[in-house]
Amino acid sequence: SKAGKFKPWILWMCAPVAISSFLIYQSAFATSPLWFRVLWLTVTYILWGSIFYTSINIPYGSMASAISREPGDRQSLSTYRTMGATLAGVVIGAGVPLIVYDTETVGGVAVSVLNGERFTLVAGGLSLLSVVAYLICYTLTTERVIPEANQDKVRSRGAMDMLREALKNRALISIICASVVMLLAQLTLQQMANYIFPNYYKNPAAMSVSTLAMLLGMSIAAGVAKPLAERFGKAEISAASNLCAAGICLLLFFLRPSSVWVYVALSFVSWLGLGVFSMVSWALITDVIDYSELKNGVREDGSIYALYSFARKLGQAASSGLVGILLSLIGYSDTTQFDERVLNGIFNISTLLPALGFLLLSIILWLWYPLNKRTVNENVKRLKALHEKQES
Fold first, then answer.
1. Which neighbouring-strand residues pair with 104?
2. What does pLDDT average to over the chain?
3. From its phi and psi, is residue 341 left (phi > 0), alpha (psi between -120 and 50) or beta?
4. CA dist., res. 57 & res. 365, Å (int)
5. Are 119 and 25 in contact (CB under 8 A)?
6. pLDDT value at residue 131
7. Contact present, 56 and 134 (Cβ < 8 Å)
8. Closest CA to 134 of 261, 44, 12, 276
């Protein structure tokens, strides 16, 4: 349309995604029969996550390659997107509990109790804010890169054709594998924080400090990612930073510091290394889209981003399942959670699994992913010349 290829989806879907999100958090149904609550959550979560959020997330992510052809611009978009998501998560994680919990005395002990009605109101308020944010994004965004050629070829290609070519696309498959491995490492660190601090170190308060350290690491990564990417290349700095993160996790495994603050300080370096890749990850996928256009003669931003997004969902699910399996293997339970054998197992999972993930991520980006700095710059020049020729 005149607004672009991707922007209209944001306009059409902003209200449905906000409404479906709000419907999930209905405290009025707390006393309803269990079958109804399960059915309600199943339907509303599928409506939100699998349909409406997907229909706005894929165009939103794909739009980065349509906003600018310049690698520096795309890196800025990737950085701001990642930092926006990180800051939003911190605000929600730290701010919402202050609003939705009441303090009550039970058996002479002060406990925090969730206020369901207030939680529903907060969910509604945030849903309205999301619509405002989407509309601002729609209004202030311009799609400058509009492919004109090969539209007949696009229309003639079916889903299986695209999937077959995707499986032959070394850049796409390698960046998907890299992202899945990254999620396994990142989410393992986050999930195991619920065990390493209260169980192994017996210091739950340190978990909040660790979260702030994570935010600090991400913030520093946001500041250095673009200049480093311009100097050395996105894939190159990601491989180096994650190799450093793997080394830190291995150091923690062998050092096994008795001080929780030493653990937090060293973990901060790991978050810094992971943060560099997080800041450039969305720019990497736009490089893959360019590469695929040169390789196949068709620009398929949405299709490529959809495959990438789906693979990330699988990575998130795999991480949750893997942590649960490993905790079961070490014998973790309510009665054994402070046994020495279980505590050692918790520490091993918290350090060795992320170390393996960081190391694999570095190897994939260094040896398998084909789009180094020189190749990306050449692809940008070739596409720019091609598009200028088509426009003329």
1. 111
2. 87
3. alpha
4. 25
5. yes
6. 97
7. yes
8. 12
Rounded CA gap, 377 and 227, in Å?
A: 15
| Residue 66 near residue 4, CB atoms below 8 Å | yes
CA distance 322 to 304: 27
Rounded Cα–Cα distance for residues 23 and 5 (Å)? 29
First-to-last C-alpha distance (Å) of the chain: 21
Q: Which residues pair with 391 in a beta bridge?
A: none
Q: Hey, is 142 helix, strand or coil?
A: coil
The confidence score (pLDDT) of residue 179 equals 87
Confirm if 293 and 383 have CB atoms less than 8 A apart: yes
Nearest to 188, CA basis, from 343, 316, 330: 316
**Rounded distance, CA 97 to CA 92, Å?**
8
Using one digit for the tens of pLDDT, what is the confidence trace for 220-236?
988 888 899 889 999 99
Residue 281 in this model has a pLDDT that exceeds 90: no
Rounded distance between C-alpha atoms, residue 284 and residue 81, angstroms: 13
